[in-house]
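Q: Sequence in, structure out?
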Amino acid sequence: MASKVIPWYKKKHVSQVKTDYAYQHTRHVVQQHAERKSSSKFASQVQAQATEAMAEPAYTIPAFRQRTAEETEEYQRVTTNVGKGLAVIQEELHRMRIATKAQVESIAIKNEVRDLMAKKVAVLDDIPKMPDFLVALRPHTVWEKTPVKLFCTVEGHPRPIVKWYKGGVPIDPPNTPGKYKIESKYGVHSLIISRCVVSDTAEYSAVATNQHGTATSKAKVTVKRPSGVAESCQLDLVPHLTEIHPSKLEVTLLDKFRVSFGVEGSSIKLLCTMVVVPDLPNVPPLAQWYRDDKLLKPSKLAEMSVGGGAASLTLPHLAKDDEGLYTLRIFTKDGTTEHSAYLFVSDAAPSAAGAPGAPMSVKAYDINSDYVLVAWKPPNTVNEAAITGYFVDRRESGADTWVQCNDAPVKVCKYPVHGLSMGHSYHFRVRAVNSAGISRPSRASDKVMAIDAAENERLQVIKIEGKYDIVIKDDELEGYVTIPGEPTDVHASEVFRSYVVLSWKPPSPRGRAPLWYIIEKCLAGTGAWQRINTAVKLHSPRYPVFDLQDGQKYQFRVYSVNLYGSSEASAPSEPIQKVDEDGIELPVGTPSAPGQVVATRNTKSSVFVQWEPPKHLKSLMGYYIDGRAVGSKEWFPCNHKPFRHNRFVVHGLIPGESYVFRVQAVNLFGLSDESQESSPIAVEPALGKGVDYATPSAPYGITILSSDGSSMTVAWKSPKHCGGSKINAYYIDKCDADTLVWKEVNVSAITERICTVDNLTEGTFYEFRIQAGNMAGVGLKSAPSEPMKCEAWTMEEPGPAYDLSFSEVRGDSLVILWKAPVYTGASAVTGYLVDMAKKSSSEFVTLNQEAVSHRYLQVTGLKEGESYVFRVRAVNANGVGKPSQLSEPVCAKALPGTKEIVAGVDEETGDIFLSLEACEISETSKFVWSKNYKPIGDCPRVAMTTKGRTSRLTFTNPDKEDLGRYSVVVTDTEGVSASHTLTEDALNTMLELSYAIRHPVVPLKHGLNYEVLEKGHVRFWLQAVKLSPSVSYRFIANDKEVTSGEGQKISHDVASGVIQMTVEHFTRANEGTYTVQINDGKAKTQSSLVLVGDVFKAALKEAEFQRKEHIRKQGPHFSEYLYFTVTEDCTVMLACKVANVKKETAFHWYKEDDEIVPEAPPNVMSGACALPLPMFSRKDQGVYKAVLSDDRGKDTSVFDISGQVFDDIINGIARIAGASASDLVMQCTPEGIRLQCYMSYYTEELKTVWKHKESKIASSEKMRIGGTAEMAWMQICDPSDKEKGHYSIEISDGVTTHTRTFDLSGQAYTDAYEEYLRLKAAAFAEKNRGRVVGGLPDVVTIMEEKSLSLTCTVWGEPTPEVTWFKNEQEVSSTEHTKVMFDGGKFASLVINKVTPEDSGKYSINVRNKYGGEFVEITVSVYKHGEKIPEPKLGQPRAAVPASTPVPPKSPAPPSKTPTPTPSKPQTPLQSMRSPTPASTPVPKSPTPTPKSPTPTPKSPTPSRSVKSPTPPRFMKSPTPPRK
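A: Exactly. Output:
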């Protein structure tokens, strides 16, 4: 087998190769074909066509007919010959059939093999593969001015992208038109270089890239020049170069990038200048960039360049992932030279206040076809709330939409993402969550393709005869497998509290059909298996499980499934419980706090911090370091990405300040507890630590300012880097352009950047070069200037301005400054014109149409991020002079954290100042202040002080001379500067504030005021904001000082700041003006009060009233006069409070001077008395009076309940009654339908409104409105359909309206109307039924031989029938017993000459068609001479309703009038009709009453309910319960 081969199907003539392996493979296919007894559709069609083509009609021998002998003989002869021919034909046909069948089978086999090979090719083409050069670049040597073509062939999946490089620099054909041509056809990539020159000699490389990797092919191109050409070349042509490798160069680093600070989303450039010997433009040094010792490669997030004496790394889109230690390593002749500095990247502004910073370092691991494991690092939380979890988002490559992967935040820094689509590429990002909100998203991860990780492992490459490579899959060697085998090694690869990730090995054999998996779980040891991925078709041998319970152990098993069926279950996993990676049950997961933290001095702006690692590391990611200035409570982060080591240098601190530090350890569970704080340390250089300085870089921009024929004045620009110390010297060299011999111009140093070179020859061209020097020495020489001709300037216009510089660069503006030209022309310079153009453009625009006289100009309207160049032209009376040298390009973009100058007044001293806090500063930085862009220097009018990053310009004696525009520049920075215009109005405002601070007054909370106290005393007072114990003051009344003595008392309280004077006898003599003068240290103030006229009269009246009140309160008195309250039961209480009472104090109530004696006598000793007015109504109006008296005096309180007071009381009752009101309930009566609202109390004075369909109802014969003490009602008399609808009652308390409603429509109205009809009929029946009005006793005792007459009055309409009974037997009229019924009114039973046999129980039954009544009488007969027996009361008289059944022995005659029958037989609703039985007994009394406390036992007479269904007369409709 070979590790790297070309697939056989991509080689030519492979189909003609026949080997033993191919034969065996073909035979295996044939066997499979025979076993399945089927073939492809194509093979079946071929075989059917061949069979049909060979088929011929069979020869049929005709039936014999009558032939002659000759005919028979001839027929037999012919038959014999034909039979022989047919036998030959049949043999030939059989042979042809066998051959055709073999040919058809061979074609079918070839087609199947071809299809299988095509499938293999398609599968292999779909397998992800990193780029590989099939044909690499080859070196070329060509002659100058001839073309050359480089080409290569690349394979890979997906198709790689090829980029071309020359010496490591990308080739960009649009920037060099006609020079390069790049082509890509049919997988062949080519680079064509037209008209080669010597400078094209270089190493060219083709870099092929896809998401799986990068491959590079390199080749050297050498361009030679024909002999003899070099002698004819001019000096400006490139000479012939020998081959020099970059590692043979001598490289010296000059200006090195320093510790840098960036913000997420911004960009930064790390630059290092160098000197290269020899300095060959075609052979730049070999430079490599590292971050945290990891080699960086050029990308859209890291742009690298080297050449032109500098190496740079640009990070265009900063993220916290970019934080770290950056190292530039350059290969030199002596080895390597390198430089390192740290880059800090702070969080951008949060999406919501208090939200955490973004996570970082998002990466994907364990990549499968539908699953990846995403991991990241947590952000630092200093002053924000703790992080509660993270959201993971995904995005398909090429799409713009992010999809959230998890519904609930995950608490650890890992998350398994499943449900991906195989072959698709994805990016991932993470957002942190805390109680304040969600962070900004992290930087997206690198592109990840969801592929089957085991796909490549199932491929095998077999080499045949050392020539041919055959790529096959393992499943092709398994034979024809339908159902796959079971998975193996089921285990948990990730175990956390939030989730568990299951992993297993794919089955073997697995078959050729697409495969997926089914997972089951059960509690360990139970065997109750349950499927967990019911809705997910799982293709990867990974699956996250989220819903496991804490404290439970689970087992898992997996099935392999394809379209043919499912495998057996795998062996169950070991019991799995949610624990952390160390096997300890959660929530123990974060590391312990780091140990002791020690901070030591380092430099003027940095501190070295080191600490002991935590005792429990727990897969440590690194550390976060926080700092805090001593005296401040706010912590700030020192790093924004976990730092791996336990020592760190904290940069960017303020020199001279003191700080303390703390450290937190970080792992995937989050941040540990904070360590203990370090001891405070001041930011100062380490003891004995010197400062390393370098020489400055070379000056540049040499320009001529004037020439008189014998001398020339030149100027230049400062070096871009000073080397760490101030530049204090410049040295100039000159040379004649013809001789090229350099000579020194000055031996002694020049401090200014302008010099006049004398002793020159007119008409000669000169070149100049300059060196700068500092305390470290003299730096490099500048590049020679352009040749300058020494000739006298005679033009009338002025010469060029020079030394263009920029200040206050912002996103849309900047200030350009310049120096006046040395050569003024024929007249003085009167102004300047400033021109501007975009970088790389020659189209200049004049910014000021009128020349400005000063040498600066503020440019506005710039486009942020755009770069511009400027030039200045001086103007005099003769015209516009020549333009200045072009400025350096300047980008319109403010430095991060840029602040402006602040004008203010010192609160302590009152000094007026201007102040600037620099956004960045270096150890050598200085603040240079200017007025109108002229350096201030030492000036007695101002004083300059600097502390840390802040500089202050203080005015000693500010006035109008100090007005103007002030600016400040911070040297040795990237251009930190600002300006502020001091206007007259602003100065006057600050002068007023300064005077107030320097001449303070005592601030007052309240000026002088007065108040009247009890006893009629008057208090004059004022309150200061603050008083010292040494305060002094005096009161002045009517221009005379008042002192504390008899009649007035003066005092003060330092704590409250109150100064007061109390006048005990306030009279008319006290009218006038009062003043208080206060002195407290340097501060003074006074306050006056004018107390005259009406103001004085009001104060005097109030004082006299308070004096009288004091006298009144010497005896019993009312501390609170009469007032009213309403209790919860709507009782109105007249209440008052009394004071200074004793037991003998009398209290009396009166209404309209009539004394009221309440049930409970008033208890004055309780301090309060009250008079209840229950069931309050209009009758309770009147004047109430309470009188309190004893031997010390008398006091009276009057309360008039009328008018508004009466209305307020009614509203108070309505407020409670309305809140307690029940819902409207319906009650049917014989008169109609009644709606009732129960409440705690009702009176007609309440403001109640009944409405029907939102229309107010007035009380009438149809609609009656009324109420009782417990409810309000509205009666609908004789209802009809017009009264259907929505009813409501509104109870108003003057503020709130309480509404209760009832919908009387639909079924509710129908049922109510039926009940009304039923009750109306029942009332009519009750009114007209038969009854005994009176006259019958309960017990009769009579002596024998006497006559007994039982007579009673009956009534009924129609006239009732009367029946008498004795001992339950009907009594007939006889001579002994006479039954009479006179006039339909009087019924009587007369017994002549009673005998003992007449004793018994008699009863009368009075009945008509509406019902009747049954009354019983007990009769006792005793003999003459016997003692009258004690009456034995029988059953009390009972009113037996007509529903009592008639005795069976003697039924009553039928009624003349038929009993009315209800129109609807069904029983009315229980809510509208009483369930009381019809047989409820009613006791007898001389006057029938509906109620009696004495129950009546059951009558021996059966009920007649069969004939009379009318309810008894005492039945009432039930009252609904009150809600």
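DSSP finds nine helices and 99 strands in the chain.
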